[in-house]
Structures are given as structure tokens and as C-alpha cells.
Amino acid sequence: MPLRLPDRLPAIELLKHENIFVMDDSRAHMQDIRPLKIVILNLMPLKITTETDLIRLLSNTPLQLEINFMKLKSHTPKNTPIEHMMMFYRDFESMRNEKFDGMIITGAPVEQLDFEDVNYWDEMTDIFAWARTHVTSTLYICWAAQAGLYYHYGIPKFPLPKKMFGIFPQYTLDPQLPIFRGFDDVFQMPHSRHTEIHREDILANPDLKLIAESPDSGVSIVMAREGREFFITGHLEYAPNTLDTEYRRDKDIRDDVDLPKHYYLDDDPAKGPLVTWRAHANLLYANWINYYVYQETPYDINQIK
Questions:
Q1: What is the pTM of this model?
Q2: How many Cα neighbours within 13 Å face the side chain of 26?
Q3: Which residues are part of the catalytic machinery?
Q4: Which neighbouring-strand residues pair with 37?
């Protein structure tokens, strides 16, 4: 089944060129189906790129999804046209009384700040608390994963001596979980971050379950509340060229930028990236939607609590 997306969302045309089936609202209203309501709080600077990356993965499901985009009232993005934000995004305050089957909270370029020093931290914590009673299952990605673990469970983050940058092998610690259905024993995940959370802090908290990790990039996926919360420290949603774009951008302004590890064919940027994570990315998002959203959410969305 296709996704229900706002009319004229740029991602629609971009994904049609990739042969991904999407549907705008006008056509979707003709189908007599209760779609799953998914809300995305997009904190990334390049909103349209992130929208496209996430919609690409969410399209890999037989269920109809209605995608909503949330923005912060306390923060104005600098890299996305205001017209785009006004047309496709709504402030959290205007959505506060609604309920959603699933939620995705993205990373943000603020990870080197203390959480309380982020100028929209108060609004973020309000959203974190709200999600507990208004969303069936929430995915927290990268900075949002660290922020969510800190807010909900008191898990601190720590600076890395060098940026974690590249594609790293991850190992599932409980392969019987539905989120890993169809997974291989090892899967790859892109990472691009300057901070980390420590394994021992996760294991010391009985409310948290470490379900995937890497000997190279550390804690990978943490589950809480029987799957109502997932904290993913990397970026399975990344497109093939995302790390390449980031590498070339940083290389032009600094002279201490390393190649992303395990990313380019033969470690040669001229040969382009070798994509090794896309299949598991699609599988993880499909499993999340099916087993932790669709199978768990009430038919009457107002019964979510």
C-alpha cells in the first residue's frame, strides 16, 4: 500500500523517480481504509532531504500510512524555505491534542552542546513527555536517541576523541525480537556523530534493553517499554550519498577530516560509496511499522494511552 502524503510535497516526485509508490492526499481519500497516523519531528537542517530519506523507508510496508510533519515553535530552521515549512509542517502546540500510531524524532546538529543548553530543550522535553501518552511507538534517531535516553532514563552522553564517521557492523543481541525478523546476524549502520552513550549505563538500567551493538561504534539500538520506544544511535535512513556529501563539505572547510570508514569502494571517493545497509534499513522500518505500531495500536486511535 502507498503512503498518504500532503499534496505537492517535494519528496513525492523525487521518490517516483526511484519507482517508489506514494500517494497524495487527494487520491488517498478515495480509499476506505483507516491509515496509520505517523508523525515526524524533523530536526535535521536539510528538511526535504530527511523527509525523502524517511518516506523512502516508510514506503516499504503493505499498510497505508498518513504522514504528518511536526516542527518546533521555539526554533526556526535556516536551511529550508519558510514556504515549505508553512505548507507542510505544523507546530507541536497545534498537534498536542491529537494522537498518533507512530512517531519518528530525528537527529539534530546540536550534539556537542549540553542538552540543557540547546535553545529548544524545554519544548523537546515537553514533546518527549507527550509522546508517552499520545503515541503507540516512537523511534528516536541519533541525537534524539541520546536526548530521549537522557530525559526519560538519566543516561548521560560523552564526547568522542574523534568523530564516529562511516558504516559499521552491528550485532543483534536478541534476534528473536520482532524488530529483527528477517535480519542477518550482522547488519551495517551509518554513523555520523561526535558523542556516545556507554554500554554499562544502559545495562545498569532495568527499564532499558540493549538489543544491538557494535565493537566499533558501540551502543546501536536500545529498546524500552516493550517496544513503545526505540533509541537508534546511527542513521539507517541515510541515502547512499549522504556521508559522501558530508565528507566533501567538511573537507572543504577543515584539514582534519577522515574518510568515512567502510564506505567508499576500495576507500576511494572517486569510486563512490558501496551501499551495504539499505536492505536492513527497509526491514527494520517495516518491522517497526508492522509489529510495534500496527499490531499494537488500537483501531480507535483516541484509545492510545
A1: 0.89
A2: 3
A3: 142, 235, 237
A4: 66
| Torsion 229-286-142-83 (CA) sign | negative
| Look-up of cell digits 483516541 | 302
Give, as one character, the DSSP assignment of residue 259.
Answer: P
| pLDDT per residue as tens, the chain (305 positions) | 455 667 677 766 666 666 555 555 554 444 445 789 999 999 998 898 999 999 999 987 878 899 999 999 888 777 788 888 888 999 999 999 999 999 999 999 999 999 999 999 999 999 999 999 999 999 999 999 999 999 999 999 999 999 999 999 999 999 999 999 999 999 999 999 999 999 999 999 999 999 999 999 999 999 999 999 999 999 999 999 999 999 999 988 887 789 999 999 999 999 999 999 999 999 999 999 999 999 999 989 999 98
Question: What is the enclosing helix (H) or strand (E) of 296?
Answer: none
Helix (H), strand (E), coil (C) string for 83-125 = HHHHHHEEEHHHHCCCCEEEEEECCCCCCCCCHHHCCCHHHHH
Q: Are 290 and 226 in contact (CB under 8 A)?
A: no
Return the sign of the alpha-carbon dihedral for residues 169, 161, 205, 294: negative
**Which cell goes with 56?**
523512502
Dihedral class, residue 244 (left if φ above 0, else alpha if ψ from -120 to 50, else beta): alpha
Q: Report yes or no: 44 and 108 within 8 Å, Cβ to Cβ.
A: yes
